[in-house]
Each structure stands twice: as C-alpha cells, then as structure tokens.
Write a structure and sequence with these properties.
A: two-stranded antiparallel sheet, 2 strands, elongated, B: about 250 residues, Glutaredoxin, 2 domains, five-stranded mixed sheet
Chain lengths: ~160, ~250
Amino acid sequence: MDLRQQPNRLAAAWPWISTLARLGLAAVFLIAGGLKVTDLAASARAVNAYDLMSYDTAKVIGAVQPFLEIALGLLLLIGIATRLSAIIAAVLMVIFIAGIISAWARGLQIDCGCFSKGGELTGGRTAQYGLDILRDVGFLALAGILIWKPRSRFSLDGVLLGER
Amino acid sequence: MSKGNRGRDRSAAKRIVEQQKAAERRRRVTIWTSVGVVAVLLIAGLIGWGVLANQDDSGGSTPSVAVDEGTAFAVGSGPVTVDIYEDFMCPICHEFEKQTGPAIAQMVTDKKVTVRYHPVSILDRTSNGTKYSTRSAGAAAAAAVDGKFLEYHNVLFENQPAEGSDGLDDAKLIELGKSVGLGDSFATAVNDKTYDSWVTKATETFSSRGFNGTPTIVVNGKQVTGPNETLPTTEIFTQAVTAAAG
C-alpha cells in the first residue's frame, strides 16, 4: 500500500516544487537585471572585464542583457510558456558559467558581475570563481526542474490550459 | 450486439474525441505562449539597444587643456610618459598616491617623466546615487582648465570620502578648490556640472583601451602591476620608468 501511495504523493508535490523553482528563478533574474539596468555603462564595463570581445560589442551586450534578464524574470513570474522560458534561462546560465570558467582559466581577477556591476578587482580582493560557479549551477538546476516538470501552480500556462 | 456494448463504444469514442480536443488546445496554447515569450524577449532586447543608442550622443564640453584625445591632464615635461587612470573615490588609488606620489613628484621635478592623469568614474555606484566619482572628476577637469589640476587632484585625495558614503557635496568640492587658489569660474563649472559628461566620455575611452580597474598605471604604453595584478610598489614603478628611459 505504501509502495503505491508514495509515487502518487510525489506526483502531487511536483507542481509545488516547480512553482518554487519558477518563482526562485524569476527572483534571480529580476534582481540580477534590476541591479544592472540603472547603470548601463557599468554593465558594459562588467562585460568588458571578461576580455572576450571588443568594447563596442561589450557595450551592446551590457545594455541588452539587463533588459533581457528583467523580461525573462517577469515571464517566469507569470509562468508563461514555462518550459521554453526555463530553456532560455538555462542557456543563459550555461553562457554565464562558461564566461566565469574562461575568466578563471585565464587568471583574470574580476568580479563576475552576476549580481553587481562587476569589473576588475584590485588590492587584495580575490575573485570567488568557485562560489560564483556553484551558485550558477544551483540556478541551472532550478531551470532543469522546470524543463523537466514545467507544470506549476499560479501560472498563466495553468489558467490557459484550464487547470486549477 | 447488445445495447450495453453500443453504449460503451459511444462513451469510449467520446473520451477519445475529448482527449484529442484537449491535446489540440494544449498545442495551441504552447505555440502562442512560445511566440509571446520570444516576442517579449526580442522587444526587451531592442529597448536595451535603443537606450544605448540614445545615450551615445552625449554632448558637453571637453576641457581645453586636456591631452591624449582629450582624456587626460599632463604634468611635467620629461621623456617618459606615465599614464595614471584614477577614480577619486577609489581607496587603492589613494594608497598609490600616498605610497608612490612623492617619487612621481620628484621624477617630474627632475624632468624624467610626463605624467598624464586620467580621471575616470567607475565607482559612481558607491556614493549612494550622488555620483561622487563623476562629480569629483568633473571638478578636477574644471581645476585643470584654471591651471591647478595637480593641486586640486592632491587635495581631493587628501580629503577622500569613504567608499559607500555620499561623497563630498558640490559645496565642499568648491571649498577645497578655494583652498588651493581656485576662484569663481571653477565654482561655476562645478555647480553647472560643465565637465560631467566629458568624464563619462573619458571613462568610455578608458574602457575601450581594455582597462577595467583603478588605479591603472601605464609607463610608455606598458601597464605596470605588482605580482598577481596587485598594486605595484614604488620600487617596481621606478624600475619600469628607468627601463623605459633606456
């Protein structure tokens, strides 16, 4: 009897787990974008600090990225096309992680600019690349949950599909 | 065929039709919400791009005395060129000034080096929205126009506010200017923020040269740092100047 009930209980819990993952990921993107959108020049410098592209390209990325993050955060918050939104979030996380690894591998001393304006670190402050990557992998896992189980509570998807 | 059997068939057929309808609805919702998501993200990206494009035409006046594409103020007339990029809010810049400033002053006196000071504003976020980095660098440009850059530069570092504080207000910036002999034209330039948009442009040039942090110290085109990208000691800096002098 227990054996048969256990999977059922888990099946009932999934929408709630997915809801938490969705709202958590939404908060991550809204905060990350909100912190950068007020100073696009600083956002451009944060991208430029990775030394992966010309400053002119970094300027465009630095300006577009915060708006994208906020938009994606809002989409996740209302829960529309959750699986696609989560896939896009996961792709962004993979890009961020790759960027941090590349900065680490090249021995750059920079702030990853994930939740700040970033830039070069000076005078004794050392980069925390390991922690930054670990945190982003955590966010990637949240996106993974949503890709796997996109159905969640309080979502526009649910309303449109007539679920309750 | 019995009646019951026919009833069962009919309800089975009904169920299949309902399932197909539900699947169709799910497909439609998925397609349209996906189109919506992509559209929203595209629009958001375009907004960011548009904001950037509109920011680029920042006018403002370039200080008449500025050298190096109008980004720096030169002190001294020696053969070796030393470029120093500093933010007046940056504690490490202050440390560098305290540590190596006297040696640099001596090199200027001995006509060994020409120092080009580049005030930049990368720490605006650390002054609670008062943009102290930009305001102080703009004031330094005004001081340069009135012929007192180095004096004002030094007094700004001596009175450096703590990172994360509001910074010095404009009245205090003007008061410090008076203390080194700057007058009314300086005060007007600070109050009118005459050179603040120039600071933004100079900071852009700094970034486009591939520099990310302050202080950035460059001797004859070569960046000088200590081990592991730390602040160079006076000894390392002096060696770089000696090597550059040949």
